[in-house]
Amino acid sequence: MPAQDVPTPASVSFIAGGVAGGVEAIATYPFEFAKTRVQLRNQSGPASSKNPFLVVSQVFRREGYRALYKGCSTLVVGSIAKDGVRFLAFDSIKKAFADPETGAMSPLRNLLAGMCTGVVASTFAVTPTERIKTALIDDARTAKRFHSSSHAVRLIYQEHGFMGMYHGYAGTTLKQAGATAFRMGTYNILKDFEKSRHIDQTTITNFANGAVAGTVTTYATQPFDTIKTRSQSAKGASTVGAFRSILADEGLRGFWRGTTMRLGRTIFSGGILFTVYEEVAGLLNPLLR
């Protein structure tokens, strides 16, 4: 999280994080859509290309540009909740991990705080919204049973109960714990290195740091993301079942399907997320302190 000279109020962390998450989700959603389509298993629908750019082109030609935003509203709601919770939780959790004498945060303490933050975000925001988003994208290419996000929620609840909203919880939580730890850890390591070399912290520097952190995070957590996507398809599957199906279908390389489009999203999302957060926090701080 971007360093603040003065502690940021909890309300500012939550609101600024939520706004930043929503803007980032809308701006980068086509990347997320293509990545999800590539990761989903072919059922009765048409064969899906493994090339994410071809997927975008095909969907645009066959279904129009609106189809590229199928499930976007669910992801935006989830991102607002996820990043609001993430920024708020990280600020709170890192206090518990800070050195009791100096208050300093070592790289390891930052990683641990990030992991705990990821678990909190997955439990209260990410898993249910990712389940709905993935089911909507999967259903749109096959059965087309879901008319809207709310309709998808009703059908999933009727067919699988409340826990149906938590299909893929293990994979999602592992991904969120790892992603938050790597993202925050890498970002802070780069920032500390730059400060030791007297490199000014500007919007461009923050964007570049976020892009590098996003790249590291993507490659480190992609297998969890792929398992999560399979688990949260329209029909749903257990985490173990998703793992076995990926291994049987494509071998070990299958766990890194969709990496290109996820990279496209995470490289931009890091810069967008931190930049918007700083701007919104700067506006709210004088009002809510």
Pick out its properties.
single chain, mainly alpha
How does the SSE layout of this entry go?
Blueprint: H1 10-39, H2 52-63, H3 72-97, H4 107-141, H5 149-160, H6 169-196, H7 203-231, H8 239-250, H9 259-288
Helix pairs in contact: 1-2, 1-3, 1-9, 3-4, 4-6, 6-7, 7-8, 7-9
3D structure, described in words:
This protein has helices at 10-39, 52-63, 72-97, 107-141, 149-160, 169-196, 203-231, 239-250, 259-288. It has 289 residues and is an all-alpha fold. Helix 1 (10-39) packs across helix 2, helix 3 (72-97) packs antiparallel against helix 4 (107-141) and helix 7 packs across helix 9. It is globular. The two termini are 19 Å apart.
Percentage of residues assigned to helices: over 70%
Number of strands: 0
Largest sheet: none
Helix count from the secondary structure assignment: 9
- Derived from helix and strand composition plus strand pairing, the structural class reads mainly alpha
Shape: globular
Q: C-alpha Rg, in Å?
A: 19 Å
What value does the average pLDDT take?
A: 81
Strand content: under 5%
Q: Would you identify the regions where 5 or more consecutive residues have pLDDT less than 50?
A: none
The succession of helices and strands, N to C, reads HHHHHHHHH
Question: Terminal Cα separation, in Å?
Answer: 19 Å
